[in-house]
Amino acid sequence: MKLRSLIFSIVALSSSANIALASPGPEQPNILVIVADDLGWKDVGYNGSEIETPNLDRLANNGIRLDRFYSHPYCTATRASLMTGQTAIRMGIERPITALSDAHLPLDLKLLPEFLQEAGYQTALSGKWHLGHTKEAARPMARGFDQVYGALTGGIGYWDHVATGGYDWHRNEITLREEGYATRLIADEAVRVIQERDKEKPLFLYAAFTAPHLPNEAPQATIDKYASIDNEHRRVHAAMVDEMDEEIGRITEALEQEGIADNTIIWFLSDNGGSNEKYNRGSVDFARFVEKNFGNPAPTRFLELIRMVMLDGGSDNGPYRGGKGSTYEGGVLVPSVISWPAEFPSRPLSARVTVNDIMPTLLSVAGVEPKAEQAIDGADQSRLLRGEVISEPVDFLTDSGGTQAYYMDNWKLRSNKKGELELYNLERDPYESANVLDQEPDVVATMLDRLESFPRGEGINISRLWMLLQPESWGGEETREPWAPSSE
User: Fold this and answer.
1) Taking a C-beta distance cutoff of 8 angstroms, is the pair 194, 255 a contact?
2) CATH assignment of the domain containing 166
3) Helix runs in 337-388, H state only
4) Which range of residues forms the domain containing residue 262?
5) How many domains does one find in the chain?
């Protein structure tokens, strides 16, 4: 069934949450969404990295390489948009949900797995949730997933599965004490889901890796593979990416072995740009002072978080400005590939596609049509991906704690917390080297009007001060009860 294209302006939105359901059947494709955590633009082989990523390279060569795919600057924001089709600021999401926060994705929103579940899909999550964990109603099984496995919070220790003092590993939201490297365990579960699925129903599988998010931890044999990289942080980071690529290969091989690869949509993306000392500002000098005077690791959770976040990142965002947490291109222009051999011709695609587009696109190809009750900021890009149209990109707004970037056509308007503006023509200046604000008053006026009129939800995150008073930690000693309930 062909559906109408849902191409909306970001400023004239009143699309939907309720759905018209198609009858489940063989015409509905299986859907596999794979998310990497803090993977930089140049952390993949097909973008020129020294890191070996043959499985992602194969997806890129045999599928559609999305050369202008945009996420948000932080993990929670991107995951929220992926699940809703809304830009994060509409939901009041400016920063990540911390382990000690009660914040969660608004409960009145219907999420992608809920739509698909009602349309006859079996739904499974393997990996990181990070959209609310302290309330049962905010956890993934209440938001449309039949089965879930992995971590409820953000960053965890790869070997000990600890987040901010609490053990964070579960099956179906019951704490699961299990040994193993998190990246491999997430893939083990994804493979199991594929092999044991109900073959009478289409499958939606969300494989959300924690890699290569800090802390820098990987099997020693894989680290040794990159001995030629002098920088220790980059060396371990490379091993973490290598491990993730290997596991993605296992998942895609399972699709092949089950005979469902041709009718499975695979959408791979990173949740934001990568982290590296060279992309950080402000606190780097303080972090170096901490490391020099207090050691590595630092003696308190607060000092160690500052030191680790500022200094330990080993990612590479290539020629792009900024990194994780930034609204410059390095923070939001990320690797992404989509593959559906039965429908989408293989090619590089330079049109702007964003994380907001994922839900409406996947609902369209699944035969699920949104209606007019829940706003959608993205667009159904299925006809673009099929090569049927060359569409104008939908406007895109992203935010990082009050510093915003608004995309319109090939223009990007950036506004910081002081209200200072920058304008870039990304077609001529993809690396944001020339601020042309004074040369384009009409463009600036139009974009400012759209930016200022865009609806913003009430903030759901705790304050920066509270984040400093109650800092996170990834890995280490258990000092509190696990984040998921126990079986008792």
Assistant:
1) yes
2) 3.40.720.10
3) 358-365, 382-386
4) 30-276+313-396+459-469
5) 1
b/e code 20-53 from CB counts within 10 Å (16+ = b) = eebebeeebbbbbbbbbbbbbbbbbbbbebebbb
Q: Is residue 23 part of a domain?
A: no
**Which position has the token pair 């596991």?**
247
Q: Is residue 381 part of a domain?
A: yes
Q: What is the DSSP letter of 482?
A: -
What CA–CA distance (Å, rounded) separates 416 from 400? 9
- The pLDDT tens digits for 312-369 are 999 999 999 999 999 999 999 999 999 998 899 999 999 999 999 999 999 999 999 8
Cα–Cα nearest to 133, from 458, 401, 482? 482
The strands making up 122-128's β-sheet, listed across from edge to edge, are 174-175, 170-171, 147-151, 122-128, 203-208, 30-36, 264-270, 336-339, 64-66, 347-349
Residue 82 in any domain: the answer is yes
Distance CA 404, CA 408 (A): 13
Q: Is the pTM of this model over 0.85?
A: yes
CA-closest candidate to residue 454, choices 396, 400, 415, 403? 396
**Is-contact 398 404, C-beta < 8 A?**
yes
Average pLDDT, the chain: 91
3-state DSSP percent of the chain in helix, strand and coil, to 5 = 30, 15, 50
**Is residue 72 within 8 Å of residue 377, measured between CB atoms?**
no
pLDDT in tens, 158-185: 999 999 999 999 999 999 999 999 999 9
Partners of 205 in the β-ladder: 32, 124
Residue 454 belongs to some domain of the structure = no
Pairing of strands 162-163, 336-339: unpaired
Angle, in degrees to the nearest 10, between helices 75-84 and 358-365: 30
